[in-house]
Every structure is written in C-alpha cells, then in structure tokens.
Fold:
Amino acid sequence: MTRLKFNTLVKRTMKPASIARARKRAGREIAAMELAELRNSLKVTQTALARRMKVSQAAVSKLEKRSRNIHVNQLRALISALGGELHIAAVFPKKTVRLTHLGR
Structure:
C-alpha cells in the first residue's frame, strides 16, 4: 500500500473552494484561541510564565480571565514571554493596516 502525504490526499478529495473554506475556518479558530489555551498548547505553566514575566502566578491568572480587559503592553509582554511576537492590525474590506506603535 502506497502512503500518501496528507496534503496530497486533501488535493485529491477536496475541491479548491472547500480547501479555502477549511483554511479560513481553521484560521478563525486559531485566532480565537484564549490566552490560557495558547499557554497550555505551548506546555507552559502559569508559574513558569510568571517567572519569565517577572510577575506572580496570580497576576498571570488574572491576565488569562475571559472577562479581563488587558492592556496592549501586558499582552505584548505575555506573548513575548511565550516566545512569540504580538502584531496588531486594523482589517478593513480593502486593506489591512499594521499598527506598530501600540504598547511600546
């Protein structure tokens, strides 16, 4: 039995429009990931993240609350401590503008 790569199988079984819809939906799901889910997916504990951010574990817990309004500089610090970079963009129907001056 010949093994196929997943991408090859998808191309054989899905129409291009279906692939595009699936990719768009996956992008939305990833974009909607909560901070705690992101941290957990990277296998980082609140305690370890707090150490990296030089804050208490309780402070990390507060930042992860769904109802919490988080400041851009706090979010940037959290993402940076997880090894990432925060990019903020304003998305309009005909163009996207990257906002580089926020939270610096």
User: Anything to note?
Assistant: Helices lie at 6-13, 16-31, 35-41, 46-53, 57-64, 72-81.
